[in-house]
Design a protein that fits this description.
Elements lengths: L1 H67 L5 H44 L4 H9 L4 H23 L5 H26 L4 H29 L2
Helix pairs in contact: 1-2, 1-4, 1-5, 1-6, 2-4, 4-5, 5-6
């Protein structure tokens, strides 16, 4: 009788230990999933910010190089770069605002349909509302990232009056920034860093070279 009771007690202890282990493992898996989701969400925002900064860098630098091909004075080059910064930041912000607002409308419509069906609990609804995209936040982030990239060639050319030295400073600063942005984008996207950095660098060089060459050609032809 005592042996049977002892065996039953041991079985109960084993069952409790197994249940605790399963509960701990499940809790750890849920925490890991939450951390993975948060990291994935943050990495998407960071990668979008890097791409926006790269757009600002390449477009503004190319515009400044194009104007610099026909105008050697520093004022024309800086004004063209500043105009490119403002126009590009506004364009990025408006485009992102419209895009994210359309996504928000779609998700809100889906939530209304789910509410009519009555298939969601209040906690799930609150969680979905918190996860909804913010158009103003997205627009501000796009404009800011574009402006950060556009400031690189502007700052590089702002205090150099000598024409050739100014062009060299812009090319050097843009080259360094392209390598950094390419590397960051590759790390956040889990892609090969060297190949991605070189691809971004060559693309930026081509954009500046084509803009400079075509503008020089049109300016010298007297059109």
């Amino acid at each position: 009788m005592e042996t049977a009771n002892g065996t039953s007690f041991n079985n109960q202890k084993v069952a409790v230990l197994v249940a605790n282990d399963v509960e701990q493992q499940t809790s750890m898996e849920l925490e890991a999933k939450d951390d993975e989701f948060d990291y994935s969400k943050r990495s998407q925002w960071l990668r979008a910010a890097v791409l926006g900064a790269n757009d600002g860098l390449v477009s503004t630098a190319s515009l400044m190089m194009g104007v610099g091909a026909v105008k050697q004075d520093i004022k024309a080059m800086i004004l063209s770069g500043f105009a490119g910064l403002v126009a590009g930041a506004c364009s990025m912000a408006i485009g992102e605002f419209v895009s994210v607002y359309s996504q928000l409308d779609i998700e809100l419509a889906q939530m209304k349909r789910d509410k009519q069906r009555g298939g969601q609990e209040d906690e799930e609804k609150d969680g979905e509302k918190e996860a909804l995209p913010n158009p103003l936040q997205a627009a501000a982030a796009s404009a800011l990232s574009f402006s950060v990239g556009a400031m690189v060639p502007l700052l590089a050319a702002s205090f150099i009056k000598e024409y050739k030295v100014r062009l060299g400073a812009v090319i050097g600063a843009v080259t360094l920034a392209l390598l950094v942005f390419g590397w960051l984008g590759a790390v956040l996207g889990k892609a090969p860093t060297v190949r991605s950095a070189v691809r971004v660098l060559v693309g930026g060089w081509l954009a500046m070279a084509i803009t400079f060459g075509l503008t020089k050609l049109i300016g010298s032809s007297g059109l």
